[in-house]
Amino acid sequence: MRLHAWVAASLLAFAASGSEPGPVDAKAEVYFSPGSGCSEAIVRELGEAKQSVLVQAYSFASLPIAQAMVDAHKRGVKVYVILDKSQRTEPESSADFLANAGLHVKVDAKHHKAHNKVIIIDDEVVLTGSFNFNSTAAEQNADNLVVLRGKELAARYVENWKEHYVHSKKYRGGEQE
Questions:
Q1: Is residue 124 part of a domain?
Q2: Mean pLDDT of all residues in 76-99
Q3: Is 115 a residue of the active site?
Q4: Predicted confidence (pLDDT) per residue in 123-140, tens digit
Q5: Range of the domain at 157
Q6: Where are the beta strands (DSSP E) in the chain?
Q7: Is residue 9, in this structure, part of any structural domain at all?
Q8: Which one of the listed residues 108, 117, 143, 164 is annotated catalytic?
Q9: Which of 177 and 36 is assigned the larger pLDDT?
Q10: Which of 11, 74, 119, 177 has the fewest CB atoms in 10 Å of its CB?
Q11: Is residue 14 part of a domain?
Q12: CA 51, CA 78: separation in Å to the nearest integer?
């Protein structure tokens, strides 16, 4: 069987199996690093936030992104952040900066790695991809950021975010659990 026929047959079998959660309608933009403005796109989107910003981050050490979240918070936007447990002791982590600015910061220590890189804005815009929120991802790594617009898609991400928020613990500096 030729490769493209195998892929098509596999996709049809997968869709017929009931494992597929179903398609969603969303508009997308894509950015790549280094060099195509992943951090700038995130900062721009955060600047447009009106009501809420929900974050899941494995690595978070970007001052421009952290400052954009604090600025959103100062505008009255509700900003909630879930970080991987490594951010408790990572010297360059933005966790203290965010928590000290009054944002709701929690740590997801339930998993070996809380490896998500997701920002959900106003229950309508989802930023995700391999791009960690740090300068290494912006300047050195080959990463991607996808900006997705669609309420149905965002609702799925919000539900998953809530599942992790429930079992995460309040961030308390370098404290270990």
A1: yes
A2: 82
A3: yes
A4: 999 999 988 776 666 566
A5: 24-170
A6: 27-33, 52-57, 78-84, 104-108, 117-121, 125-128, 143-149, 169-170
A7: no
A8: 117
A9: 36
A10: 177
A11: no
A12: 6
